[in-house]
Amino acid sequence: MGIEQIVEQVVSQVLESHVPKLRQALVQRVLDELATHPELAPSQSSQASGSNAASLLKAISHIHEGSNQKEILRALLDGTTDFSSRSALFVVKAGAAVGWQGQGFGDDKNGEIKDFSFDVSSGLCAHAMRERTPAAGETSEVDANFIANFGAPADNESVVLPLLLKDKVAALVYADGGANTGVDKVALELVVAATSAWLEVVSLRKQAIKETAGDEGRDSSPVAQAASPAYSDPFAGHAPTHTASQAVAEPIPVEAASAAAAGASGSSVSVGAQEQLSPEDADTHRKAQRFARLLIDEIKLYNQAKVTEGRKHKDIYDRLKPDIEKSRSMYTKRYGKTAAADVDYFSAELVRSLAEDDSSLMGANFQR
Q1: Which residues pair with 99 in a beta bridge?
Q2: pLDDT tens digits along 54-102
Q3: What angle do CA 152, 157, 158 make, to 5 degrees?
Q4: What percent of the chain is helix, strand and coil (3-state, nearest 5)?
């Protein structure tokens, strides 16, 4: 059996055991969103409500059929057609929003969406970027150049929805009623939320394949092999001609990571020691940092509601203690007796990712 077949077999086994849990997390996220919108509850005894639910199911199912980022994002735009007449997706890079694709603007205008620079400095776009929540309002609150190029909707109402990945706005979805009247903002929110969640699932699958085929994939723990939801930017290949730089972020250097870990754990590699690290030891530090990131990403993916509540009440550690300590044990078993043992990358990543660099949000019982 060739190496490719072996890798494919192992990855298939890992995903078979792990993806069901991811699907449960995705379903729960959509249900949580539905719970915040009682207007979609079954108590609405109208035929329109049933039609709306059927359209939502169809749109989300189409998104789940996507096996790569391009297919998923195309399904997102297709899924907006039952809830708006026109929609467009803009990729957010370095604070700027650049057109990716559009639908409903007409054959000629749809193509012009690509590489259109969407002003996010004010109005609905600024609100969506800043608050990371959908913003609806009059068309006068949307980029004037966009409206001049593509026309205003009949009712002069527009909505801008943020597509969140790793708690950051990765894209903006613009929608309006076009020549018709109104959009279904709640349904659009659910379609965008489902897209965000499924993009993370697909990212996890790709990372699992990489980790299984590489050094990390040879770990004896199936959880360590499969639970690798490191963020894979779905827009990394999108390079608008007018954008000066679209560089993909590189892993944090050992020196910077050590400094971050020092703040979380009180231990670090001195500058002199960093300069004297052998290539092998430097590689161990990078792998330890990456492994810590993967473990924390798994915790975050499966416990988003607890993380949000933990930040609010400053008791993240208490809410996630079993998961944190289980992952800490895995990290220690793997890197506790290596060249990276002097730097607590695990605690640093806990504070960085779960507490947004504010260790007080972890709570008084968090031990560094």
Answers
A1: 90
A2: 888 888 888 988 888 889 999 999 999 999 999 999 999 888 899 999 9
A3: 85
A4: 60, 10, 30
